[in-house]
């Protein structure tokens, strides 16, 4: 049976149980939450349309573009993970969902294990027909965060923590070499004292853009998850992480035994912290940086931060 629904999507009805997509687009009772997610979807669609020249660049997605999309066959869901937006906990939850009983408590899974790629199946591992079938029929979701708060979070994690030596070697040394006048030999060798201003200068440097794609920790959501090419059914926000996550788990039919892990992190990057980091960035650099992340701001409805001094 094909049923039209108020949101204009054809959803084929299974006998008996309702799929997550049916529950989302034809809710048993229309909730404010369903309406909120519809507004978020519309915002993405409108932004893609308004910026179609820059956002669509009529290209076809390749399997390589799909390596951030984690597939859960049992619950027919696809999650696009964005680093620095609770992605460790969401990967843990996906391991519980796809583990067929191997795990029951997400927080018992060590963080480093959640990032082992073989522990989760990603969409790029399927054939083209299988990919298309899943993109069409599975419930797709992602989580987003205020772009500059996410950026500061990535900087703090990757460049100010002593243990992240691989990042210091791979990116820090390059940033110091390119952005710091009269750098010491030690700084050039270690790359472990990158200043936020230098990181920003590196991000807006046209040379960087030409040389290689951004690392996933500071790549735009728009480039990681391709929301103008892939229609996401749910867009969760870091600011409402718990409610949005538990709504998704409820739609998946697992809400009664699986809750999204909550934890009060005292070290998490806040708006005040982000404001402070941007104090020393020139208005010219702020403007250029905003341009880099502009689609993420518009698409996910984040206003221009009040601390910015845009030119």
From TrEMBL:
- Is-annotated flag, keyword RNA-binding? no
Gene Ontology terms: cellular component: Golgi membrane
Record keyword Glycoprotein present? yes
Which keywords accompany this UniProt record? Carbohydrate metabolism, Glycoprotein, Golgi apparatus, Membrane, Signal-anchor, Transferase, Transmembrane, Transmembrane helix
Tell me the superkingdom of the source: Eukaryota
A GO molecular function assigned to this protein is: sulfotransferase activity
What is the protein's membrane topology class? Single-pass type II membrane protein
Where in or outside the cell it occurs: the entry states: Golgi apparatus membrane
- Choose any GO biological process term that the UniProt entry carries and state it: carbohydrate biosynthetic process
The EC number(s) attached to this protein equal 2.8.2.-
Protein family membership = Belongs to the sulfotransferase 2 family.
Give the protein's recorded name: Carbohydrate sulfotransferase
């Amino acid at each position: 049976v094909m049923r039209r629904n108020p949101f204009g999507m054809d959803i084929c009805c299974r006998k008996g149980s309702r799929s997550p997509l049916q529950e989302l687009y034809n809710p048993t009772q229309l909730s404010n939450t369903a309406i909120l997610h519809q507004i978020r979807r519309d915002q993405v669609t409108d932004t893609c349309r308004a910026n179609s020249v820059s956002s669509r660049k009529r290209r076809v997605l390749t399997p390589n573009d799909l390596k951030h999309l984690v597939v859960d066959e049992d619950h027919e869901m696809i999650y696009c993970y964005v680093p620095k937006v609770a992605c460790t906990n969401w990967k843990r939850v996906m391991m519980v969902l796809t583990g067929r009983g191997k795990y029951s408590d997400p927080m018992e899974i060590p963080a480093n294990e959640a990032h082992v790629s073989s522990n989760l199946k990603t969409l790029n591992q399927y054939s083209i027909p299988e990919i298309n079938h899943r993109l069409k029929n599975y419930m797709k979701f992602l989580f987003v965060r205020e772009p500059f708060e996410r950026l500061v979070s990535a900087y703090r994690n990757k460049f100010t923590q002593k243990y992240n030596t691989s990042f210091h070697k791979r990116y820090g040394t390059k940033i110091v070499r390119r952005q710091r006048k009269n750098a010491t030999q030690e700084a050039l060798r270690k790359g472990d004292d990158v200043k936020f201003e230098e990181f920003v200068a590196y991000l807006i440097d046209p040379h960087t853009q030409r040389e290689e794609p951004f690392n996933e920790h500071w790549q735009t959501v728009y480039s990681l998850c391709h929301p103008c090419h892939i229609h996401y059914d749910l867009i969760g926000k870091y600011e409402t992480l718990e409610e949005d996550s538990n709504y998704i788990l409820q739609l998946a039919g697992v809400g009664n035994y699986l809750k999204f892990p909550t934890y009060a992190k005292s070290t998490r990057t806040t708006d005040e912290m982000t404001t402070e980091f941007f104090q020393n960035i020139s208005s010219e650099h702020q403007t250029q940086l905003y341009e880099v992340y502009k689609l993420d701001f518009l698409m996910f409805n984040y206003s221009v931060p009040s601390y910015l001094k845009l030119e």
